[in-house]
Design a protein that fits this description.
The structure holds two protein chains of two kinds.
Chain A (H helix, E strand, L loop, with lengths): L5 H12 L11 H6 L6 H12 L10 H4 L7 H5 L6 H14 L5 H12 L22 E4 L2 H5 L2 H13 L4 E2 L9 H4 L6 H13 L4 E4 L2 H9 L4 H5 L3 E4 H5 L12 E4 L12 H10 L22 H4 L1 H17 L4 E4 L2 H10 L7 E4 H12 L1
Parallel strand pairs in A: 1-2, 1-3, 3-4, 5-6, 6-7
Helix pairs in contact in A: 1-3, 1-6, 9-19, 17-18
Chain B lengths: L2 H11 L4 E2 L2 H6 L13 E4 L3 H14 L3 E4 L16 E4 L6 E5 L4 E4 L5 H9 L3 E2 L12 H7 L6 H4 L6 E7 L5 E5 L11 H5 L8 E8 L1 E2 L3 E9 L2 H13 L6 E6 H10 L9 E9 L2 H16 L3 E6 L3 H21 L2 E4 L9 H14 L3 E7 L4 E8 L4 H20 L18 H4 L2 H14 L15
Parallel strand pairs in B: 2-4, 3-4
Antiparallel strand pairs in B: 1-2, 5-6, 6-10, 7-11, 8-9, 8-10, 12-14, 12-15, 13-14, 13-17, 16-18, 17-18
The chains are: A alpha/beta, B alpha+beta.
Amino acid sequence: MEAKYDFTRKFREQILQCSRCGFCQAHCPVFGSTLRPSYNARGKMLLLKEVMDGKLELNDELTETLFQCTTCASCFENCPSGVNVPQIIKQVRKDMVQVGSCHPAFVGMNDVLSRHTNIYMENEPEDFDRERNQKAEYVYFMGCVGQYRQDEATEAALDLLDRLDVDFTLIDEVCCSGVLEDVGFEINPGLADKNVELILATGCTTVITGCPYCFRTFNGKDQYVKLREAGIKIVHMSQFLKDFDLPVKTDQKVTYHDSCDLGRHCGIYSEPRATIRKIAPNFVEMPHHHANSLCCGAGGGVRGAYAKNSIAMARKRLDEVEEIEADVILTDCNSCVHNLGNAKLRKQKFKIHTVTEYVNMLMEDAE
Amino acid sequence: MDEKMKQALIDIVGEANVTDELIDLVSYSYDSSEISHRPDCAVWAETTAQVADIMKLANKMKIPVVPRGAGTGLSAMAVPVKGGIVLDLCRMNRIIKVSIEDRMAVVQPGVVYADLEKALAKDGFFFPPDPGSGKSATLGGNVATNAGGIKGAKYGTTRDYVLGLEVVLPDGRIMRTGSNCMKSVSGYDLTRLIVGSEGTLGIVTEIIFKINPKPTKTATAMATFDSLEDAGRAVTAIMYSGIIPSVLEILGRECLQAINQNTDLNLPEVDAMLLAETDGYTQAEADFQIEKIIAVFKNNTPREVKQAQSAAEAVDLWKARKSAYAVLARIKSHFMLEDVTVPMGRIADLLKGVAAISEKHAIQIATFGHAGDGNLHPQILYDGYDPDQVGRMEAATADLFQLAIDLEGTLTGEHGIGLAKAPFMHLEHDEVAMDIMRRTKQMFDPNNILNPGKMALEV
């Protein structure tokens, strides 16, 4: 019999591989902040198994759990059976959209990106007092969060590039639209083509992204293949920064939060730490770090659709900053900074910055 | 579900803590076994008083209640086979007290094993029975199943650490058992009756655990044996040696082959590998013990003996054992992980018997487990969508249980009976013992509402 859904065709074997051991409960951030087993990775795989067995249909009743996954991959990292839950969830969401069952926030997001250039529907991009679309060796790609929500961090990143004498330009960037792939839709080809065209026109050799998700999208998605074919390198700011001598130091107690996109999804762990260790000898890890890092709760569309639980996940992360009594938590993802910032309690006195922003602050202070 | 019943539950725990949503009914249908059945609803309780009120209501309405922790059990004991209410205790997850001076910890049932471990580590203490699922499993579940772990040989199982309990009975009454004392011979030992009763007699809402100081040093050694007999003789000689290893694990030939086929560990494909760890408070203490064990290994015709010279080398030696579960879990779409247990002197016989059963039913069975306490994990690998393979798996399982009993062993060392092993209870327990167990159940739970259908307690 022809499989009814694409997820069955692509992932049947993997879903059956789930042995229901429940070990993912120790790692799933959505379960951790709700203690509701149906939200856990196992709960999701059980539902999909029943769908494959013909006991259930994909429908609105399943939306609440299938769309409530940050795709952080900590379950996959720790799964004895090797079930790649985020990959499966992304496909299932596409099947859900096909049958007309999708969280309204994501229908809205797809709609927004069909009419606007960014996920926040902002019509007047911040220009950061810089010319755009110049000829340059590097393009700095800010990302939606960097441009419209964490603009101070972006300003700092641009200042730092200036301080380091980097020949770079901004472009009239639009949303990379990679996030649509996570929430049941496809990358918007119009947006992708615009970015590709503008980047190619600069004659750059390298695109530096401020956002780990844009980095993944440019490097991995077919819609951006022209960049790779043109020999343009895509690097994340954390990779770019690690080779510079940074003539500043701080005695603050600093820790680092591995974002899921840069860490578990791309395996970039050592580069940001190399930079931080140069400037902050008093560097300490939180109890969960590298591949075991806790998710900030923002990914996979969860911040937009399930804000309360998203914040609860971020709080768990911030509890660890308190536990090790750090003065500063750094990360390389604007989206993490944004969510952690929203979750921070008044009594929590530590600061939250991107690595780039922090380095720039220290350099500014030293001048 | 019945609207009146739902409203009555809402009156007890609040609307947000009662669910009959499809997603929850499906996830509460399962544990880690192959058996499933949907409940009518699920309830999240946060206090003992709520649990008591739920039981009073269920008892009056004669509705089944199935208490549940993390649902990591392998015997379907948390599967609501007769429907009714799943009572999820994961949100009763407070560590109420850690008293080093009294060497005890008081916890709610929803505390995850790893969280207690972390809390005790600050003072250099630990709660030794560490199930393989310890990062997820709850302590209430560990008590209900009398969970064991890798350190059973030296440190025993959960039962050996439970000093007292608070238990809600099926009629809603609240009972305290045991005491805060290391010693107590006061009255019947109701604590031991409840531990391992799989949620059929009462719902544990508070646990008083004995805790141990944690040895700070370990030593590790490994030996491989071309013949099972030699490995068996080595285990027996360790028992004579006067040393109690903190861990003594065995991996059988099928298991080593499976690991080799799926990893790059490149293990010798011998009849058996033994891994030993000793512990102590000085390195000399741990080393003294491991040297005795190495001498035993060498006296029993090993192919190879290795001692870890560093922590990193110890990690390398443990890789084979640690990878076993994940490797075996990936080979076929389904597996049955058993936990038959025999006296330590019969381990070689058990492994030989398992190999014969595997051949007889033409089904892959890979075995690893705890040689130090006789508790082995034959893992039967099969395709659950192939009726022929399912039939052979079931026949092999029945033979495996008979084998364990023939070797003066037991059906289950640490996973419990639940539903999966209920049909085999009569192999191990005589008519009189079964009669007393059933009467005990009837006395506690005359309406048979608490986790009904489990442990062959229904006539």
